[in-house]
Amino acid sequence: MAAAVWKGALSFGLLSIPIRLYSAARSERTVLHQLHDKCHTRLRQPLFCPTCKRIVKRSEVVKGYEYEKGHYVIVTQEELKKITPENGGGMELLAFVKKDQIDPIYMDTSYLAMPDKGADKAYQLLTKALEDTDEVGIARFTMHQRDYTVFVRAREHGLTLHTMYFANEIRQVAGYGEAPKNLQIKPQEIALAQQLIASLTEDFKPEKYKDTFQEQLRALVEAKRKGKAFVERTAPQQPKVIDMMEALKQSLRNRPAAAPGPKRRRAAPHQRRAAS
């Protein structure tokens, strides 16, 4: 069984729910290491000082913050220890917000929360309450000597947690979201774009999507290991740039006719605004 990355209690008002956290997702990567081309030995990065022009010992290493190019503020281990939070066993729910108010850009690492011994009823109570209210809890706790703010949401009749990016960590790009001046989009173009979206709309099936580079890399490594020739996949040709209206029409012509299905429930006005 997978090891829990954190154990503690999730407090819901006066209710305390002992839980364990498990990583909800893990990258499956084929890693390429750096080798010496003469003997194929894996290389390691030495601690080399370009000023003193020598390899330094671990005992000579300190930490510093670069406040301007080439200038550092030195921070000692004793100073770091004073400001590093202790790993506590408490996770306090601070607030609840509607799910549709949370932009997914604020979600970072995901964890699965499992009830610890004797916590099944309290765990299911909070899960059911979140499901019925369509709300997400915001909680704070300490793990691995670092403070985290997390989203707590009901998912598949269990609790899933997502660590939160803080507002100052969300990047701002000049001009993002601003339409160029004098840009006009014709109603016919919008209608065609919406038709194309409708023709491509389907149920979300995560297993349908693959990391094709990793698949190709594994195939390449396996072929070389067995002394076989690797046949690379032909890269798709990029279509020629044509008029946008014609491109939309051509895209629709290339799509197979969608099978008739049940009518979708029209979204409420506030949902449509949130989606935009």
Q: How would you describe this protein?
A:
The chain is α+β, with helices and mostly antiparallel strands. The protein has a domain of 106 residues: Ku70, Chain: A, Domain 2, CATH 2.40.290.10. Helices cover 24% and strands 27% of the residues. A hairpin with a 4-residue loop joins strand 3 and strand 4. The radius of gyration is 27 Å and the shape is extended. It starts with 5 loop residues before the first strand and ends with a helix. The C terminus is likely disordered.
Oligomer: single chain
Number of strands: 11
Kindly estimate the percentage of residues that lie in beta strands according to DSSP. 25-35%
CATH topology of the domain at 6-26 and 84-168: Ku70, Chain: A, Domain 2
Relevant terms:
276 residues; alpha+beta; Ku70, Chain: A, Domain 2; 7-stranded mixed barrel; two-stranded antiparallel sheet; 6 helices; 24% helix; extended; disordered C terminus
